[in-house]
Write a structure and sequence with these properties.
Elements (H helix, E strand, L loop, with lengths): L1 H6 L4 E5 L2 H12 L5 E5 L5 H15 L4 E4 L15 H26 L7 E5 L15 H21 L5 E5 L30 H6 L5 H13 L4 E2 L6 H16 L1 H5 L1
Parallel strand pairs: 1-2, 3-4, 4-5, 5-6
């Protein structure tokens, strides 16, 4: 997304928990000829989020597009094998971290609402639960929550002119399946994902991140709310919604 926005001439403020990878990304993105600043940030630390967002606004003078993209896969396995620390980590990064970033940026976005857009990275896992199980209960929980956040934001911000997009992709070629290697000690420390897990294996043949970023830019330009880049799971999403509609029809069985 950063690369695709840089192709359009947008200056970039990058934030990530991994300082080494952040600096490597900064060097690559500087080749686009735009200004690139980087900020080491743990999005679970709301005070740090506030400080970084303030510094970004002071440095650039305005904030236009906010990509709330931080996310971890969590422990992919049977939910009965998870503990409270596992839940805390996934919720604090995927859900609360996104909320902190968006909430903190809102006052700055509302200064120039017609030039403002929020991009929330959910997942196709925010619209359906894959069958058979991939051990994604914690991940699904947070990604479903982000869909609700984005839809509510769109209702709240539409009168002000701020755009909102909720990204719901399938597999993109990133290292999210191995995010456990960066889990902080306060959540139990680092762990390694099973290299044979189907999602970890599939990532290498997933969508190129820059191609995905270009699709996201198109979604921003067209002010699309729900952004579906991988339509393969349409049947699973339709099946879920059909169950919900049928539950409305069957409500008389409960209420009489």
């Amino acid at each position: 997304m950063a690369g695709a926005l840089a192709e359009k001439g947008m200056n970039l403020a990058l934030a990530d928990i991994d300082e080494a990878k952040l600096e490597a990304a900064k060097k690559i993105l500087a080749q686009y000829g735009v200004r690139v600043e980087s900020y080491t940030l743990d999005v679970t630390d709301k005070e740090a989020v506030c400080e970084v967002v303030k510094r970004v606004e002071e440095t650039f003078g305005t904030i236009n597009v906010v990509c709330a993209n931080a996310g971890v896969s969590g422990k992919m396995g049977p939910i009965q094998e998870a503990d409270v620390a596992d839940w805390d980590w996934v919720i604090d990064v995927n859900l609360k971290g996104v909320a902190y970033v968006v909430q903190t940026c809102l006052p700055y976005l509302l200064k120039n609402p017609q030039d403002a857009h929020i991009v929330i990275t959910s997942s196709i896992s925010g619209l359906r639960v894959y069958q058979p199980s991939r051990g994604q209960a914690m991940y699904n929980t947070t990604k479903f929550g982000l869909v609700g956040l984005g839809e509510a934001l769109q209702v709240d911000l539409a009168p002000h002119g701020v755009g909102v997009s909720i990204l719901c992709p399938s597999i993109v070629n990133t290292e999210i399946s191995h995010s456990g290697l960066s889990r902080p000690e306060k959540y139990g420390g680092a762990f390694e994902t099973n290299a044979n897990h189907e999602l970890a294996n599939a990532a290498s043949s997933g969508t190129d991140p820059l191609q995905f970023g270009r699709w996201v830019v198109k979604a921003i330009e067209q002010n699309l709310l729900h952004v579906i880049t991988h339509p393969n799971d349409q049947a699973l999403v339709e099946e879920r919604h059909e169950k919900i509609i049928n539950s409305f029809k069957n409500s008389r069985l409960i209420t009489g």
